[in-house]
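ZP: hey, is the 2-acetamido-2-deoxy-beta-D-glucopyranose complex queued? I don't see it on the tracker
AM: it wasn't, my bad. submitting now with these inputs:
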Amino acid sequence: MQRPRLLPLQSRLLAYLVATGACIALWTPSLPLVHAAEVLVTPDHDALDSLALHAFTSGDIPHIGDEAFDREESDGYEPEFSYLDRSLIGRQTDAPEPLKNNEKTEKDIDPETTLHFVFEKGQLRLRSVVDVPLDALEARGIDNASDEAGLGDTTLVPGKEGDVGDDEMGELAKRQAGSSRVWLTANTCRQPMPNGDAKEARKNHPQLVMYVSTSPRNKQPGPDATQDTLTNITGVLFDGGYASFELNTTSDVYIGIGAPKLEEDWFGSWHFELAASTDGPYHSYDDATPFLYMIDTDSESTLFISQNLSSSNDTVEVDRWRAQNPFHMYAFPDGEWTPVTGLERSYCALKEQFNVNATRNFTIDTSITTKFNKIGGDDNMPKSQFHVRNLQSAKTYNGFVVIEGSQQPLTIPGTGTTRGGGRVFQAFNWTTKADDSCQVLFDLEFCDMVAYAVPSNTKFKLNDSALAEIYENQARTYYDNFNKSLAQVACDTVSEAQYSLAVTCEDCAKTYKNWLCMVLMPRCEDWTATDPSLVPRNIKTPFANGSLPEMIPGFNDSAAFSQSRNPKIDSEIEPGPYKELKPCEDMCFDIVRTCPAQMGFACPNGVQRMGMYGQRDENPDRLTCSFPGAVVKLNAKGGSGMLGVHLPTITSIAGLVAVMLLG
Ligand SMILES: *[C@@H]1O[C@H](CO)[C@@H](O)[C@H](O)[C@H]1NC(C)=O
Ligand SMILES: *[C@@H]1O[C@H](CO)[C@@H](O)[C@H](O)[C@H]1NC(C)=O
Ligand SMILES: *[C@@H]1O[C@H](CO)[C@@H](O)[C@H](O)[C@H]1NC(C)=O
Ligand SMILES: *[C@@H]1O[C@H](CO)[C@@H](O)[C@H](O)[C@H]1NC(C)=O
Ligand SMILES: *[C@@H]1O[C@H](CO)[C@@H](O)[C@H](O)[C@H]1NC(C)=O
Ligand SMILES: *[C@@H]1O[C@H](CO)[C@@H](O)[C@H](O)[C@H]1NC(C)=O
Ligand SMILES: *[C@@H]1O[C@H](CO)[C@@H](O)[C@H](O)[C@H]1NC(C)=O
Ligand SMILES: *[C@@H]1O[C@H](CO)[C@@H](O)[C@H](O)[C@H]1NC(C)=O
Ligand SMILES: *[C@@H]1O[C@H](CO)[C@@H](O)[C@H](O)[C@H]1NC(C)=O
Ligand SMILES: *[C@@H]1O[C@H](CO)[C@@H](O)[C@H](O)[C@H]1NC(C)=O
Ligand SMILES: *[C@@H]1O[C@H](CO)[C@@H](O)[C@H](O)[C@H]1NC(C)=O
């Protein structure tokens, strides 16, 4: 923080006029305020000075009780106390507060006030100066080049320029000849609140407005001083608590942050942070992507996976992310009004509100994983994984992924560079499942590629490992038998004896294991889910509440749908009625392709295959069958819809598991 400097009288007068102008008129951005504007347009400083003297000496003073004026008056007569006043009482300053390159400034702001800031042109040259070799700096009398405060002092640099050698002078001139690019960004961290039952008002959260001027004729831009501004009459309205403005300039940049008048039923003030940078936006918002996929959800938890954090799957790189993961996820229950409504694009607001006590019951565990890939491959790229637990069932939540701000800029493929103010990605929502009949399992020991909801029961709701054990033990048993068969197929002999040059027994073992786990642990959805790719299971079994599921019109009562694919599910887990997303048929083809012909694997054909397997959709964002590493694209348009349930016409899938397990 820089110590506020004493400013010439006219500046204070401007502030005074602006402040009183704001009090006289109702705050309406589109309403030009004639009085203030006329005075401010006047470039004649002498005239202002005499006006000012007049204002402070004559009796022509606004009525007593005008807070803005009282403040001006005390500042005018007791300048030596003004610094203390401002810092202790937090009064509105009349002098624009200087901003430092790449440093945020935080302020509280009351309704119908405007705070002023200046990004002085000395800050624009900061980069050029830093680029000059160290000895040149020393030659110019700057003893400590790494002293940021020293470099930040705008009076220091221009005064020393004469000492620079001819070559350096040329270089400096060249850099300074062009205008400098400046990014102004802001986040609202706290905002006024609506009264308890002011439902109407909750819909439109009042947002702050940014005004920017580079004209010496308007050093205090605001709602009532929009002449000569780059952001013109309406300013830059904060959107979801985020504002950004970019400009090229050679001169001082004047910034005003204006707060609107509050409607009835609202109370409180705002808290915001503002930053200027010559390198890129200090605060970032990415409206193109949530940067996240949902792996699956159940009635109590949800698992998410980020996009690749890096373009390298090198273990050193992966470990680096494990040691320091800058990604965080925040979530809030969806509703008419939540603590972040109107602040969805503000990093500081999301972070602060998420950590307020008692607003949530759930927890979010964050880790780095190298599993999962949209198309089922095995790239081992580092990704951030978020496991949300203790959620309520059948409830919609709003989620946000952010990259933590840090002074060291961080560049991640596809996201650009994140600076001190952090980065917020597009918000997303998801709804937890209604029933306890499906449960998300992941990070299993044997079926390590499984990460989705599998058939379950309330008794396993808070005990993933007990549920996983049932499935895993079964899978291991089948796999042992397979392994014994595979061992008989001369896998470890030299290449002539090998069944194929292109694939190995390891490939066979891997595809078999994937297939086995996916078939024994079907991907599960609520009974009420309507996606046409889903098939009903256990249709003759009662729900936990004792009632039987309603029969689907036109649906023939077949044995295939009255039980689970894996008999163990019905005997040991007893999930009740649920729906299943069938495994993808390519998982079966893969076994036939990669395993020795002697093993006798074959995939079913025609109608039988349609009953057992699903097919991938041309649109990779649409999940129509289950495969290892499958993810759900968040915010994807045109999902399942209410298309009804289309069932295959086959009448039997008996022996589905047996056909291949014992083949
Ligand atoms: C306001 O500024 C925008 C660009 O910032 C410009 O496109 C628009 O024409 C301006 N409007 C007026 C009335 O000057
Ligand atoms: C500033 O200048 C750069 C090139 O020097 C250009 O790419 C950018 O669009 C300009 N920005 C504005 C707001 O004019
Ligand atoms: C991760 O990177 C791999 C390899 O570049 C790519 O194939 C895959 O689609 C990426 N995954 C995600 C989730 O972006
Ligand atoms: C949050 O809760 C902890 C203890 O549970 C307490 O120490 C802390 O003061 C609380 N913070 C707020 C902001 O209420
Ligand atoms: C938090 O969970 C407890 C029991 O687990 C429940 O009684 C309480 O209502 C929950 N609170 C919220 C805000 O959901
Ligand atoms: C890393 O990724 C490449 C493809 O991008 C892949 O060929 C390689 O097997 C991966 N390495 C590991 C250890 O998974
Ligand atoms: C969830 O997000 C989608 C797409 O962004 C939106 O259309 C939908 O209204 C949201 N649902 C809720 C309950 O907010
Ligand atoms: C989970 O179930 C297993 C086996 O039934 C049991 O040993 C374990 O204590 C349970 N854990 C919890 C946290 O209930
Ligand atoms: C499969 O059998 C081989 C020996 O034939 C053994 O080395 C390997 O560990 C077995 N794999 C599993 C997963 O049991
Ligand atoms: C019983 O539970 C199922 C699944 O949660 C639900 O669809 C059904 O409406 C419930 N029936 C009654 C009578 O509550
Ligand atoms: C249901 O069965 C009847 C005869 O049993 C048959 O005519 C009809 O096509 C079947 N419907 C479906 C949807 O399979």
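AM: back. The radius of gyration is 33 Å.
ZP: great, adding it to the tracker
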